[in-house]
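User: For a benchmark we're assembling, each entry needs the component sequences followed by a predicted structure for the full assembly. Here are entry 17's components. Please fill in the structure.
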Amino acid sequence: MDFITELSERTEYINNEIYKYLPNQEGRQKTIFEAINYSVKIGGKRLRPMLMLETCRMFNGEENEVYPFMAALEMIHTYSLVHDDLPAMDNDDYRRGNLTTHKKFGHAMGVLCGDGLLNLAYETMAKAILESGNIQVAAKAFEVISKKAGVYGMVGGQVVDIEMTSHKEDIDTLNFINELKTGALVEAAMMCGAILANASDEQVENIERAASKIGLAFQIQDDILDVTSTSKELGKPVLSDEKNNKATYVTILGIEKCKEKVKELSDEAAQILGEYNTNEFLHELVMFLINRKQ
Amino acid sequence: MDFITELSERTEYINNEIYKYLPNQEGRQKTIFEAINYSVKIGGKRLRPMLMLETCRMFNGEENEVYPFMAALEMIHTYSLVHDDLPAMDNDDYRRGNLTTHKKFGHAMGVLCGDGLLNLAYETMAKAILESGNIQVAAKAFEVISKKAGVYGMVGGQVVDIEMTSHKEDIDTLNFINELKTGALVEAAMMCGAILANASDEQVENIERAASKIGLAFQIQDDILDVTSTSKELGKPVLSDEKNNKATYVTILGIEKCKEKVKELSDEAAQILGEYNTNEFLHELVMFLINRKQ
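Assistant: Structure for entry 17:
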């Protein structure tokens, strides 16, 4: 089977698993159940849950242990997009070619849908911890996700991103933003895959380092695509960052230097993962994500 | 010592404990650290952490075990207020006589401060679980809080509240909103106090029933005060619910019936708590909260 077909099948498999954790009840609060389902199901590459699952497989972990954490992490990623799209933030009407959650369900429901998703992520992990065969390890995975998602992780990156108003930001600030805003959840994904497969502390640290490089390479590639891709390929307006007058790796380093940086980071990540070298699909996935065209 | 002096001293004690869990680091994301500290420290009765602590004491629990959960629950309560005050929701400029978080720090930071607080609550619980002497019990407390805070709890109540646009709502809808929006976190507070003190499942269920009645009585009293109190006593505009064209217990039942209901619910709660009858302060606190003038 070629990689693209394999990728598509595995994405479908992941969707099937994570959708099981979405609310399917009736209830007076049905609007938020609909908004949560809508916001998760309008798509995405499922990069984070896939990296978690494949890292778990690399360490020969028990797959059942990671499913709730995969769902939880994708919920956290989705809530961050829903809130990022709000008028008070990036004010985006479309995401991946679909109406953003607040455009479809109203502004208040956009706020509450994000809140509900973030909380549901933790509710899902709480159940998983109590049902886990290894409560200590499951609690450790929860701790990593909570740390990487919060004010010392993703939210911290969003804060500095929001406050950035100039094209001419220094590279340290841009690194800080991207390591936290994008990198932190990629790190959480791969670290949880390793932790839940009972990897050693040293192995988890190595995986964190590799994930950090993958996250950064992914973000730089995103910035490159933002200026080189067409709107149709990308599913969102091209030059959206430029429109918002934000510095990106491209505005600071230029395209050629960005491409070099992506190559360098992906080589380093591959080298770390190569030490474990037991998951060819994970290797191909990382290379694909970093060199993608959309 | 009279009750009011005792209450004030215990509130101070609780503030001292929960402030330890707030971010005090420097960092590029310092705006959110400031916003989080501001939003928590502009006050509040600390009802939820106090109920948790006193319930723990009633069951002779280890106080150190509850401090991080007290802080976490107050963070969740605070995030819900920060987001409730947003222009997309209730659009309030003042809370307890102070500027609301989004008025002071900007609209985007209001969204992110709420997100950061909610996540910090879980980060705090994650650390507490890993450090707890009884990981199973601590994980159970986390599960209860996550359930009561989310789409089947507080957020679910907020959704139905936001969708309510008429004075003439039926009493079932109003009960649903208040049981979830206010009641759920009061239940979480007292249940966690009991759980962390190793109370039995039956005891935790009884505490949940009592807490549900206390939460509802508290809410009805709030509705009464909204029409009978002065703005200065209340620290927020009087008739704010009427301004927003919302049904309240007063608009549906009338003031006299509301007062009867508060009396009835508080008697029932007192009866349940009376079975344990080992915490006079908790009893006085409940009576005070329910019969308060502000």
